[in-house]
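In the design runs reported in the main text, the only information available to the sequence generator was the tokenized backbone. The following block is the verbatim input for one such run; it is reproduced so that readers can re-run the procedure and compare outputs position by position.
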């Protein structure tokens, strides 16, 4: 691993600490010793304006006079505005009103509008009508004034169109809007469909996030030794994410030894022992809020991996490479499932739920399940240029001593897929010369 020289990118402060450009850095490509062709700098204002226009295009296509966005990811996508992200993931009381044409209005937590009002995507700000309602048991009392205000805005802005899209809300708020004569539509799937295709500026953000996350994973690999705890290694990864300009890790998927089988156990106080595997999934909301999602499994020395560990790793590695190799624009999800790497029977029950999943501000559309699960979880669809996807693999058997988790991230181009992640594979687990 001596050829691995990833350094956290130097962050340039933005006025709001939300969306910033970095100097044009080079991300090492360990597979080819070349550099990514993805842009690593971008115009933040262009990113915001294009995303907002994409939302308004969606509104026109679906005949929505306005949308009310409660989901922090959708708020960020439409305007670039972010505030107390984790808090509002669970407490949906901050909302943004966006008409097809007219002023975008932020209904904000008291005293914090200044962190977003400099954005050119937001023309007005008001205090949220519902910000403390649920905590104080006032949901029913505030629903009517909330709805009355939105109804007046739509009367002014929407030319008689009374259809309002909401991505997330309480049942009471929807009923209150309908009582004011508005027609409420669930627009979450509409927005996720819009977000599936990435702008060039988004590709730049995703590339920057991947660079920072690969550094964080390298920090974990350097610290891996007998006696270190999973929590210590997880803290090392989190530290690397933050120092690289990222924001937070969605999961705690970093486990060792018997906790690697089955997958989805979480990091804890367990200490890694000699000769065990350590597996992790980054699941990171990184630079400018864009996701970086790769998985790696490492061997904790001294000594060499067992034949069983190597066989698990080799199968997972083959699954990733085969499934990435078949991906082509225009390919149906059913074709992907049918042509995917065939998981040996003894490992099938513990398969990872998806073959691929989309990547953007988080894990997004599309999600392509295995052939046996396709109708249940996925349905019909087509792989399109501009999508960004992670290719997943987990190999472990019921009752097995350990398992292997691997994952890589790709951009779907006009001719195939291009890797965004270049973190090297473990030569010892592949039984290659080191």
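Verbatim output:
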């Amino acid at each position: 691993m001596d050829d691995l020289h990833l350094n956290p990118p130097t962050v340039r402060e933005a006025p709001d600490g939300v969306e910033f450009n970095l100097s044009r850095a080079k991300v090492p490509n360990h597979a080819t010793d070349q550099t990514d062709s993805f842009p690593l700098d971008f115009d933040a204002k262009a990113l915001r304006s294009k995303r907002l226009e994409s939302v308004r295009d969606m509104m026109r296509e679906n005949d929505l006079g306005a949308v009310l966005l409660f989901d922090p990811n959708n708020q960020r996508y439409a305007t670039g505005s972010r505030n107390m992200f984790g808090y509002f993931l669970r407490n949906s009381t901050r909302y943004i009103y966006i008409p097809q044409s007219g002023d975008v209005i932020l209904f904000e937590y008291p005293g914090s509008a200044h962190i977003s009002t400099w954005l050119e995507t937001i023309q007005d700000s008001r205090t949220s009508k519902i910000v403390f309602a649920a905590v104080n048991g006032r949901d029913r009392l505030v629903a009517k004034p909330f709805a009355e205000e939105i109804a007046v805005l739509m009367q002014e802005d929407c030319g008689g169109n009374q259809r309002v899209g909401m991505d997330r809300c309480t049942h009471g708020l929807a009923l209150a809007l309908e009582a004011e004569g508005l027609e409420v539509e669930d627009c979450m799937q509409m927005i996720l469909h819009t977000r599936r295709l990435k702008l060039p500026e988004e590709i730049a953000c995703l590339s920057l996030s991947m660079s920072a996350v690969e550094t964080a994973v390298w920090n974990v690999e350097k610290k891996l030794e007998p006696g270190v705890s999973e929590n210590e290694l997880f803290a090392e990864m989190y530290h690397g994410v933050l120092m690289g300009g990222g924001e937070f890790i969605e999961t705690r998927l970093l486990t060792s030894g018997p906790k690697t089988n089955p997958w989805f156990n979480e990091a804890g106080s367990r200490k890694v022992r000699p000769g065990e595997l350590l597996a992790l999934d980054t699941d990171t909301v990184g630079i400018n809020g864009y996701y970086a999602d790769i998985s790696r499994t490492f061997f904790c020395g001294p000594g060499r991996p067992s034949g069983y560990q190597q066989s698990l790793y080799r199968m997972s590695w083959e699954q990733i490479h085969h499934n990435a190799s078949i991906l082509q624009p225009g390919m149906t999800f059913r074709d992907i499932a049918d042509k995917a790497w065939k998981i040996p029977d003894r490992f099938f029950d513990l398969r990872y739920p998806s073959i691929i999943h989309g990547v953007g501000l988080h894990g997004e559309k599309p999600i392509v399940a295995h052939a046996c699960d396709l109708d249940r979880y996925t349905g019909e669809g087509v792989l399109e240029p501009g999508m960004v996807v992670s290719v997943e693999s987990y190999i472990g058997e019921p009752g097995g001593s350990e398992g292997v988790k691997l994952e890589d991230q790709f951009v779907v181009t006009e001719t195939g897929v291009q890797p965004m992640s270049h973190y090297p594979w473990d030569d010892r687990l592949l039984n290659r010369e080191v």
